[in-house]
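Usage

Read records sequentially. Each one opens with the input sequence:
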Amino acid sequence: MAITRDKKNTLVAELSDMLSSAKMTVFAQYQGLNVADVQDLRRAAREAGVTITVVKNRLVRVALGSSDTYKDTDTSGLTGQLLYAISDADEVAPAQVLNTFAKTHPQLVFVGAFSGDGTLLSADDVKALAGLPSKNQLIAEVVAQLLSPVHDVTNALSGNLHALLDGVSAKATN
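and closes with the structure output:
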């Protein structure tokens, strides 16, 4: 059943809003996935703060053309059955979610991505991004590095105190 012009206009407006606030939009072919698989992907994406949407490529082109950021972006790669993973919070999350899902579902194939500044990324670039740690993981690693000297000093002082207490208790028992 065809959708009405009003519904198409609504979809384009929603897509334009999502794309304008997106930090990364990854698109991938999903031919061969069944409905249950796509629902599993959407569930995993929702947990990571990523929105998965399946829209006709022509409507995506219209939405991209209406945005100042994406109006000059090459859309020639938007062919075939594509799903779009969009995140407005984390630049790497869409690629990571799709990459994790693709490990168990080889039918999902990266096609490319649009960065938040309107740059078109290739499938290889998306795969490289998927290998990066998430924003929260990077923050945790920086905090751990900053706390490392504090832990070292604490452990050194703690070791000296234990040696002192052992010496005192040995003297007291003699």
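Summary fields computed downstream for this record:
- Residues 135-173 form the longest helix (39 residues).
- The chain has a mean pLDDT of 87.
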